[in-house]
């Protein structure tokens, strides 16, 4: 199973949250879709995160909180690196909960999905 799906399951089970998981392997194809489709995938008014086992570069355009690796040079077994960089369901869930908490009582900005 994937990190995002495992995190969504954890948030549903422990915090009774409904989480939508989206796979977006090609931003160029997503950008080429009609506005209505893009907004159906990335719902306006709903806090969103991205989880990437690479750089977060470029994700600020699509989500309110990108999560990933913004440093260079680490090497080792994947499971140890994922833990080191916080790419495990428990840590990602905590970051998602902080984002949700931040927007309680505040309007969630609509991201500019116009391309």
What would you say about this model in short?
This protein is mostly helical. The protein contains five helices and two strands; from the N terminus they run αααββαα. Strands 1-2 form a two-stranded parallel ribbon.
Which properties best describe this structure?
mainly alpha; 115 residues; globular; 2 strands; two-stranded parallel sheet
What would you say this structure looks like, in words?
This protein is mainly alpha-helical and 115 residues long. 41% of the residues lie in helices and 5% in strands. The protein has helices spanning 3-15, 27-31, 35-41, 78-84, 89-103; strands spanning 49-51, 65-67. A two-stranded parallel ribbon has the order 1-2. α1 crosses α5 (89-103). The termini are far apart. The relative contact order is 0.20. The mean pLDDT is 93.
Distance between the termini: 32 Å
Structural class: mainly alpha
Order of helices and strands: HHHEEHH
Total number of strands: 2
Low-confidence stretches: none
Percentage beta strand: 5-15%
What is the residue-averaged pLDDT? 93
Can you list the strand order of the major beta sheet? 1-2
């Amino acid at each position: 199973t994937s990190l995002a799906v495992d995190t969504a399951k954890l948030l549903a089970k422990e915090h009774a949250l409904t989480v939508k998981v989206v796979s977006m392997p090609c931003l160029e194809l997503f950008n080429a879709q009609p506005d209505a489709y893009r907004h159906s995938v990335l719902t306006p008014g709903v806090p969103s995160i991205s989880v990437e086992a690479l750089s977060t570069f470029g994700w600020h355009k699509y989500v309110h909180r990108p999560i990933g690796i913004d440093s260079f040079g680490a090497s080792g077994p994947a499971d140890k690196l994922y833990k080191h960089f916080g790419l495990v369901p428990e840590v990602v869930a905590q970051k998602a909960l902080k984002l949700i908490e931040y927007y309680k009582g505040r309007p969630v900005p609509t991201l500019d999905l116009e391309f």
